[in-house]
Amino acid sequence: MKDFLLETNVLTKKYGGRAVVDQVNLHIKKGEIYGLIGPNGAGKTTIMKMIAGFATPTEGEIKLFTDKDRERRIGALIEAPGIIGNLNGFDNMKLKALAMGVYDKQSILDLLNLVGLENDRKKKTKNYSLGMKQRLGIGLALIGHPDFLILDEPINGLDPQGITEVRELVMKLSKERGMTIMISSHILEELSKVANVFGIINHGKLIKELTEEKLKAECEEKIEIVTGNTDLASSILEENNYKDFEVVEANKIHIFGNLSEVPAINRMLVMRGVDINEIHIIGSSLENYYLSCIGNGGNQNV
Amino acid sequence: MFNLIRMNLYRFFREKGYIAFIITLLCATLISAIAIEITAESGIEIVESVDENGQTVYNMGVADENSDITLSAAAEANTSMAEIFVEILGSGVIVMISGIFAIIYSDTERRYGFVKNLTVRKRERVAVFAAKAVPVFVFTCYTMVAVLGGVYLGSCFTYAIPFGNVNRFFAYFVVQLFVATAFGVFSLALYELIRKEVVAVIIVIFTSLGLVSKIVQLLEMGLVKVGICSEAFIEKYEISQHFLANRSAVINLSDVSAGKPCALIIAAIGIVIYLAAGMILYRKKDVV
Ligand SMILES: Nc1ncnc2c1ncn2[C@@H]1O[C@H](COP(=O)(O)OP(=O)(O)O)[C@@H](O)[C@H]1O
Ligand SMILES: [Mg+2]
């Protein structure tokens, strides 16, 4: 319990009686990059709004640090960056710093430098590209030295170069400043490049929380055997030097590696009297794994 | 709170649109002031001819000298800068400008999501709302100064006219400034209630043109007709004369209070009520 930096307890938000976030229990440890993944309309933004304090939960609670200094230490970029188009990048940063009472010219210049906007700081932000706006949004979120950063779909709509820039920035903040970062996306492929813990959400419900290793393992290709006699099968496998396997369900065994040996394993088990109902290779791309978690209909319900 | 006021003022002066509007207004005033001054110059003749065609000829026939004196006195009063100033600002113009500014200012903050940068602390949200009253006040003040500037320049371009009674002008200026600011605060709260720019602007325009008090008067007439209350009762309270837009329209140089309680108190009560209402709304609603 103690080592969680953020924990939500049956967090729920209803709009007009409909729960768009439904009894979510999130756990984020200090220093983690937590990836929140789900299709459009899953409730990612709403969860982040509540954590950042923009929206009030209908039910449940959010535990984060001690309540007193909670807000100072959260920086958030939620949906579009909140910038005034008629003002330049520097002024937008200055306004936020003034409002927070932490204005200091040099630290704003440093932040602009960090997000790579030092040369465009005098340009009106309405003339910024999408990627520049997004980076300014991250810069804004970093004002006041937060140690928890919330980024809602920061790569949405960016070109490949923009995506790389944002990803590198996020890694840098995590590594060099030890920030805890919560980042959302509807593309697991992208998220998997930065995050080390994942929360999968659909229809407002948190379906799964798993670490990077666990996710890799889930997606790794492996041999799945469906049989009525897993005990016997296990002992046979052990005898034959297959160490890396796991009984995942009452009638299911997963064998890792050795993918080319499906026929041999099959023959061996059948010969020793194990009835094989199915044997095949499962697990493929992250995206397929993700789709199987949320069910393929996930995208239609927005 | 102080931080937020600093931020708002910085934003107000950096977003050049508001200053540009004030300068445009100055030019517009200049033009209308010139127009008013030119008609005022020829006004003596027009009034005279009306007089002759109307009553004087038949009733008195001899009061030429008397009527001349009153007429020139009236003409003089009309052509003082202070009077022109009141003429331009009264009839709901200044409250309308202040109200529309309040709505555009609030909407800019929300449309671009800038409000997300301001605060997340529930108890601070209240201050985020209240701090916006400061740019509303500053804007209203600048607008009035710009109108005065336009009137002054207008007289430079046409012919020299007296300024009028400085004390009275000053009293009027201060009272009108606070009444219009109070209306601006009302508009800030109205925006937070509906959070739709166009709808809020329409309501502000109708309110500042006195439509709401017309509606109230209609309701009052209805109440009297149905017999729920007497005419005397309604006359005693005269609800609509307490409306900010109404007060702004009826106060003038010779009567800066125009009814009881005086306009300044109405403005003060308005500011307190609408600030409180807006703060409660702002705190209760989700930021985004
Ligand atoms: N202010 C709101 N009022 C009503 N419904 C809302 C509001 N905000 C979000 N929703 C609904 O909540 C659901 C989740 O939205 P959101 O959190 O933005 O999803 P995501 O960020 O995962 O795409 C959507 O169905 C959306 O229509
Ligand atoms: Mg979203």
Helical element count of chain A?
10
| Strand fraction of chain B | under 5%
> Element order, helices and strands of chain B?
HHHHHHHHHHHHH
Radius of gyration of chain B: 22 Å
Shape of chain A: elongated
Beta content of chain A: 25-35%
Please report the number of helical segments of chain B.
Answer: 13
Distance between the terminal alpha carbons of chain A, to the nearest Å? 34 Å
Set down the secondary structure blueprint:
The complex is a heterodimer of chains A (302) and B (288).
Chain A: E1 4-15, E2 18-24, E3 27-29, E4 33-37, H1 44-52, E5 59-64, E6 74-77, H2 89-100, H3 105-114, H4 130-141, E7 148-151, H5 160-177, E8 180-185, H6 188-194, E9 197-202, E10 205-211, H7 212-219, E11 222-227, H8 230-239, E12 245-249, E13 252-256, H9 262-271, E14 276-282, H10 286-294
Parallel strand pairs in A: 4-8, 4-9, 6-7, 7-8
Antiparallel strand pairs in A: 1-2, 1-3, 1-5, 9-10, 11-13, 11-14, 12-13
Helix pairs in contact in A: 2-3
Chain B: H1 2-14, H2 16-59, H3 64-78, H4 81-89, H5 93-111, H6 122-131, H7 133-157, H8 166-194, H9 197-208, H10 211-226, H11 231-237, H12 244-250, H13 263-284
Helix pairs in contact in B: 2-3, 2-7, 4-7, 5-7, 5-8, 5-9, 6-13, 7-8, 8-9, 8-12, 8-13
The complex binds adenosine-5'-diphosphate (ADP) and magnesium ion.
